[in-house]
Amino acid sequence: MKHSFLKLLGIVVPIVIGTILFSSCVNESAKTETAASTFSLDSAKAAIAASNKVFSGSFATGDSTSFANCYTSDACLNVTNMPRMCGTQAIIAFFNGGRKMGLTNVALTTEEVMGGKEAVVETGKYEMFVGNNVSVEKGKFIVVWKEENGKWKMHRDIWNSDAPPPTAPAK
Question: What is the pTM of this model?
Fold first, then answer.
């Protein structure tokens, strides 16, 4: 009897342990699938397109608050030939500097959006305008988008001009 009980225990214990391990893996898999299913790249793309319209429109109206609200509270701008600028106040100062230089519009063209729940990356082209819609610069950009308070906002923003580099001075 004692031998039969141990034999039975030797069969039952591995089955119980296997069942527990299997069910915990299934539960983790279900949690992962549920979390992944709440992210929609199409929804992120639509939010980015809407934010880009606000971003561009803010130059035409001179609205630094709307411009800054397109960015996360800890966003950073990585502008060519300038130190990195982080935070809302630095972004507003950058916007105001651009307006003082005559910048009246920025046109953005998204070429690619990819990513997931943690971050989305947008690449594209830009064109800057002054005065009566006079183009002064064209280039490309990369933006890392992040959700903040349920809204997709720019978190890291870098761009550079397509203009050729300045020529070296004659020797």
Answer: 0.76
The DSSP secondary-structure symbol of 169 reads: P
3-state helix, strand, coil in the chain (%, to 5): 45, 35, 20
CB 140 within 8 Å of CB 131? no
Cβ atoms of 68 and 95 within 8 Å: the answer is yes
Domain 41-161: assigned CATH number: 3.10.450.50
Domain locations in the chain? 41-161
3-state secondary structure of 70: coil
Which has more confidence, 13 or 92?
92
The torsion of the CA quartet 33, 35, 40, 41, rounded to 10 degrees, works out to: -90
| Number of neighbours of residue 143 by Cβ within 10 angstroms | 26
Of 2 and 44, the one with more pLDDT: 44
Alpha helices in 38-155 (DSSP H): 41-61, 64-68, 88-100
pLDDT at 29 over 80: no
- Cα separation of 134 and 131, whole Å? 6
Q: What is the pLDDT of residues 86-135, one digit of tens each?
A: 999 999 999 999 999 999 999 999 999 999 999 999 999 999 999 999 99
Q: What is the DSSP letter of 118?
A: S
